[in-house]
């Protein structure tokens, strides 16, 4: 009887974990969207209280304001994406980047974030984006994302800056400098790598190139986000 109770409790916990993680991630994203959009909705409701008190009552419910906030932010992101992919929009963003680069302190924060996003949109030199590196010891390997390729000032050897995300929160991790000759190239997309990391390795492509690729061959599968 005790063994059955223990088995069912363990099964219940294992079943609940992915559900709870999914709810936590979605709740976090929704709370961020609400926090961004709520000032706009709040200002509009304040304006309605003055000019149309009856209509303002319909906007007073917190759940309704939160829904409108999320919708506004998503619509704004969609419009921003449309602008960013247009020729005129790219020129406008280029001018905005130039302006941010001229503002002290802001330039350091914005510039670093901008370079990180840009690095994931382009192939990093001669290597794949998703790689395996020896971490935290030579006997172990972990998945990393190449963000940039350097050259050693003394030897000219290629050195990769590799970001190693942690499970289950990939926004925290480690930055490692690894010679490209020590990298094991994976033909995974970034989506596949992030799914692998967030699932604790449970969700992954069927095959993994754990050993060093022959002659350092480069996989040609596109690394799209």
Relevant terms:
5 strands, flat, five-stranded antiparallel β-sheet, single chain, 225 residues, alpha+beta
Description of the structure:
With 225 residues, the chain is an alpha+beta fold. The protein is built from six helices and five strands. Strands 4-3-2-1-5 form a five-stranded antiparallel sheet, covered by helices on one side. Strand 3 and strand 4 (173-179) form a beta hairpin. Helix 1 crosses helix 3 and helix 3 (62-85) packs across helix 4. It starts with a helix and ends in a 27-residue tail after the last helix. Mean pLDDT is 77; it is low at 214-225.
Summarize the model shown:
With 225 residues, the chain is of the alpha+beta class. The chain contains six helices and five strands.
Strand-residue proportion: 5-15%
Instruction: Output the strand order for the largest sheet.
Output: 4-3-2-1-5
Structural class: alpha+beta
Radius of gyration based on Cα positions: 24 Å
Outline the low-pLDDT stretches. 214-225
Tell me the quaternary state: single chain
Strand tally: 5
Mass-distribution shape: flat
Q: What is the helix tally?
A: 6
**Helix content bin:** 40-55%
Name the average pLDDT: 77
Strand and helix order: HHHHHEEEEEH
The rounded distance between the terminal residues' Cα atoms is 49 Å
Main sheet overview: 5 strands, antiparallel
